[in-house]
Design a protein that fits this description.
By secondary structure, the chain is mostly helical. About 65% of the residues lie in helices and about 0% in strands. The protein contains 6 helices and no strands.
């Protein structure tokens, strides 16, 4: 459970759906969570609060066009984990891969986080 938040973020960003209000909020929230973890060094215990803070300001969020393909690492790769430690390591690698695939939106997420004071 220690990496469950990263699992949810990676899965949501790997399967963003079609453009609409829910998808718009989801992509921003989950990318902000991964940005906070990978760039700002926020502990996983704070990611839920960051997501809640971002969603409070959903009217100021913008559509983030998803990457064309994010299939090199998937949730299926996590299933191959033999131990709990391997599972955690594999989730972190998966989340890092998905985060990197959304790199063209990192500056937008940075701006949203700085405006929200997170």
């Amino acid at each position: 459970m220690s990496v469950h938040g990263l699992t949810v973020d990676a899965y949501a960003l790997q399967h963003p759906g079609t453009q609409g209000p829910q998808t718009l909020s989801s992509a921003n929230v989950h990318l902000a969570s991964l940005y906070s973890y990978f760039e700002l060094g926020k502990p996983m215990s704070e990611l839920s609060n960051i997501k809640q803070e971002i969603i409070k300001h959903k009217s100021s969020l913008v559509w983030l066009e998803p990457p064309k393909s994010i299939t090199e690492v998937t949730v299926a790769d996590i299933l191959d984990s033999g131990t709990a430690l391997q599972h955690c390591d594999n989730v972190k690698k998966w989340a890092a891969y998905v985060y990197e695939e959304w790199k063209f939106h990192h500056s937008a997420i940075s701006s949203i986080l700085s405006l929200k004071g997170t």
